[in-house]
Design goal:
By secondary structure, this protein is α/β, with parallel strands linked by helices. The chain has 5 helices and 5 strands. It has a single domain, classed as Ribonuclease H-like superfamily/Ribonuclease H (Nucleotidyltransferase, domain 5, 2-Layer Sandwich). It has a 5-stranded mixed beta sheet. It is globular, with a radius of gyration of 15 Å.
């Protein structure tokens, strides 16, 4: 059964993470450390896209992610491929700059990874515990989306 409120938020790169959201609660998070494959750029990206595509086929989702930087090759390739996947399935893709995510989540656009994780762990919207900075970043991206939605509703 399709639920229009499902969402996934992503932290892309050689080490990536994906958080699953239902309504305004983070209900699951998973990460991939890149160590499983020797050809990171291809195998890692294929594994990530297969996982996302499977999720898209099961649920109707929006995808929220941190805007990738073209100087980080693995992240840039994944970013472009996620954009293509969203276009293929007519999925809404919402992108935020890293500094915007940090600002919305911690109040400081230059917050450290530890500061982001501290806020993520304390959030009532998060029902899981991140095990690494990539999971924290994926969850923070989803929290940024929620905060932006709240601001939109207030205006």
């Amino acid at each position: 059964m399709v639920d229009e409120t499902d969402r996934i938020s992503l932290d892309l790169g050689e080490y990536w993470a994906m958080a699953r959201w239902k309504d305004s609660l983070c209900i699951a998070v998973t990460s991939f450390d890149g160590g499983k494959f020797t050809d990171y750029a291809w195998e890692n990206t294929k594994y990530l896209l297969d996982k996302i595509e499977k999720y898209i086929q099961t649920y109707r989702v929006d995808i929220v992610l941190e805007k990738a930087h073209h100087r980080v090759p693995t992240q840039w390739v994944q970013y472009q491929d996620v954009k293509k996947l969203c276009k293929k399935y007519n999925i809404i893709l919402i992108e935020y700059k890293p500094s915007h995510i940090k600002k919305m989540v911690t109040g400081n656009g230059r917050a450290s990874k530890d500061e982001v994780k501290e806020v993520v762990v304390k959030s009532e919207a998060v029902k899981v515990t991140p095990t690494n900075e990539h999971e924290s970043d994926a969850i923070a991206c989803g929290l940024c989306y929620l905060e932006n939605q709240n601001e939109t509703q207030r205006t």
